[in-house]
Write a structure and sequence with these properties.
Shape: globular
Strand content: 25-35%
Largest sheet: 6 strands, antiparallel
Radius of gyration: 24 Å
Number of strands: 16
Number of helices: 2
């Protein structure tokens, strides 16, 4: 009787442990639904408006090794290897866009490291960033502000590229001096083309 009871207790303990283990494994998430609210700004002091046209995609590559060479390549979903010149044109992930939602862009990411690209045909801008998959986090919500009046700049982990930026010519004043009528900038402004390395990730499951 004692042996049978002991055997029953052991079997019960094993069953409970198995159930607990199954519950733990069930809670593990191996992907993240990445979402972004995307806003347009066309003048330095103008209002921000929700983007109405966006294409988005991702490659499972490192932005230290790959880049988007031009706006045309961004539209065609082409990335280029910085060392070899190799090109890829079939993204690992295609994003979805719904202009009626605040967080209008979304995609499912399943690899540890991604290069996310957003193309904005309204403003003829594109943006990209490096993104590390968070541990056991089902969704992430971020915001991206795309300003057509600015030259290429970095913002919250994104590089927003303006291949069509034209600096305004300074106007001569009556006193013979000039007023700089160029686009305004701030501490996160970078000049140049699209060959940047974007760093930083969204974490903690909160809006960035």
């Amino acid at each position: 009787m004692g042996r049978r009871f002991g055997r029953f207790v052991n079997m019960t303990a094993v069953a409970v442990a198995a159930l607990l283990a199954a519950g733990c494994f069930k809670s593990v998430v191996t992907y993240t639904r990445y979402t972004a609210a995307i806003y347009n700004q066309t003048t330095e002091s103008g209002p921000y408006a929700r983007a109405q046209q966006i294409d988005s995609y991702a490659y499972y590559v490192d932005t230290t090794e790959w880049r988007v060479a031009s706006y045309e390549d961004a539209v065609d979903r082409i990335i280029t290897n910085k060392s070899t010149g190799e090109q890829r044109s079939v993204p690992d992930v295609l994003g979805a866009f719904n202009s009626s939602k605040e967080y209008s862009m979304s995609m499912i990411l399943q690899q540890e490291l991604s290069m996310i690209v957003v193309v904005n045909p309204e403003l003829k801008l594109y943006a990209y960033r490096s993104y590390e998959l968070p541990v056991n986090l089902e969704s992430v919500a971020t915001k991206l502000y795309m300003c057509s009046w600015r030259r290429t700049y970095a913002s919250s982990g994104w590089i927003v590229v303006n291949d069509f930026y034209v600096e305004e010519t300074p106007e001569e004043t009556p006193g013979g001096t000039t007023d700089d009528a160029g686009a305004g900038g701030d501490e996160d402004t970078d000049t140049g083309t699209g060959a940047f390395t974007a760093a930083g990730t969204a974490g903690g499951g909160k809006t960035l």
